[in-house]
Amino acid sequence: MIFSDLAPLLARARAGDADAADALARRLGPYLRRLVRMRLTAPGLRRQCDSADVCQSVLRRLWEAAAADRLELTPERLAGLLATLARNNVIDKARRAARAPVADWPADLDPPAPGPSPSHGAAARELADRLRARLTERERLLLDGRAEGRSWPELAAQLGGSPDALRVAHARAVAKARRWLAAGG
Questions:
Q1: Which residues, at least 6 apart from 65, have a Cβ–Cβ distance to it below 8 Å?
Q2: Mean pLDDT computed over 81-101
Q3: In sequence order, which residues have a C-beta less than 8 Å from that of residue 107 and are 6 or more positions away?
Q4: In the chain, alpha helices (H)
Q5: Exposed site from 73, 132, 150, 182, fewest CB < 10 Å?
Q6: Is the pLDDT of residue 157 over 90?
Q7: CB-based contacts of 161-166 (< 8 A; 24+ apart in sequence)
């Protein structure tokens, strides 16, 4: 295992031996980069954050803490400590990326609001209108009633029929809409 024979290197690095610290960084680097890449899952975060940068930051914090005698470094604790430092570093980078202003945006203009653009909303409304046009009047009333939170007995009183029959009609209308959307709308 990667951590089994690190005790002498750890002791030398802790004593200030730069060569031992470099050797540890070379040995731990691939393991640490794997940890970081597994945590870089947020959309767009991999483009903004490189695993090598996170690894350097984690190793720097590790050496600073070890040099200041703030932690007891043993090979057994090192794996967990590296995982914790990597996780926290990636979380910090994700938070900073979420708060960062839009790059190259003029200072005198407000940046775009987060979320879907107006054109995305218009496209979704257009798709919904086209889908509704393919449904019968009864199917539209049934889907609208359920979307408004009305119960099956209420809809049965309004539209006629039994609540069970309306549940089946609703399921068929939803399946019809799914097939139409799956076919490309």
A1: 71
A2: 79
A3: none
A4: 7-14, 18-39, 45-48, 51-67, 75-99, 118-134, 137-147, 152-159, 163-182
A5: 182
A6: yes
A7: 166/142
Class of domain 7-99: mainly alpha
Average pLDDT over residues 88-101: 77
Cα–Cα distance for residue pair 39/51, rounded to 1 Å: 10
Interacting residues of 78 by C-beta distance below 8 A, sequence separation 6+? 3, 6, 10, 28
Please report how the helices 163-182 and 118-134 are oriented relative to each other, as an axis angle in degrees rounded to 10: 120
pLDDT per position as a tens digit, 4-51: 677 787 778 777 788 888 888 888 888 888 888 887 777 667 767 777
Q: Which two tokens stand for residue 101?
A: 């202003």
Domain spanning 122-182: which CATH class is it, in words?
mainly alpha
- Number of residues that make up the chain: 185
Strand (E) or helix (H) holding 161 = none
User: CA-CA distances (angstroms) from residue 163 to 15, 33, 151, 155?
Assistant: 78, 57, 9, 7
Cβ–Cβ contacts within 10 Å for residue 142, how many?
A: 25
pLDDT at 1: 52
Q: Where are the domains of the chain?
A: 7-99, 122-182
